[in-house]
What does this fold into?
Amino acid sequence: MVGRNFTVLVEFILLGFSDVPKIQEVLFGIFLIMYMIILLGNTLIIIITKIDPGLQTPMYFFLGNFSFLEICYTSVTLPTMMMNLWTKKRNISFLNCALQFCFLLMLGGAECLLLAVMAYDRYVAICKPLYYPLIMNSKVCIQLVVGSWISAMPILIGQTYQIFSLPFCDSNKLNHLFCDIPPLLKLACGDKFMNEIFIYADAVVFAMVPFLLILGSYIKIITTILKMPSVTGRYKAFSTCSSHLIVVGLFFGSAIITYSVPKSNSFSGMDKVLSLFYTIVTPMFNPLIYSLKNKDVIAALKKLLPK
It folds into this structure.
């Protein structure tokens, strides 16, 4: 600790894509188009799951909430990234960085939990169809959604306080697109051991446990589908959960790769690209995946949109 310069930071510098200055405007245009697709696509999903009579089931209730969550999750980071690309000013205040980090954690945790809830819904529908209306009644569905949104909040707010209470030294430059755990811990000084323990514990509770629940649900689902005598029945059952399975693969796959790859300077560019997958690419493809893979959603969109 001797010789380290501790400073009271008032702001951070998000380096982002500053190493490729010639394509800043191109990146801004790409991100703007992606953001518009995310807002439009997910808003359409929310609208049709609310107004279409054929979509008033638990599966589409969860899908509408998931689409709203995707809009919120993307809006935490993408507008700031676009503003930095447009203005070339990459500074973010200490408070705004803490708020962005906190909401990113809370919404990310809520997304993991809601994906697990959606997997459980498909498990009950396929493996216990006779009990489905009884188990997944409206009261239970609302409780599951509310629980997904709020259960992670107190712990992750505490996590944010712990990390931003650490002293920062040497630099205020975050080599990332937004305020995230790895770049913040890299700048922090002092004893980070307990912070890292709590980070891993939170990752287990709010990421690994939901992932294992999803995995267990789909093992049961696939086992049940394979036992069905009719090929048509197997296809119909699998088609109701294939979209969710693709979204789970995109979100958890990119997140696991991002946080499990050993960090080094040579991988910093790859970290940024991978982080775009679970913060931007997955929310953008969510409406497309559910629209292209689901006949009920396609029919509802045809009724809503002008010919």
Notes: The first strand starts at residue 6 and ends at 7. Strands lie at 6-7, 11-14, 91-93, 168-169, 173-174. The CA atoms of residues 34 and 284 lie 7 Å apart.
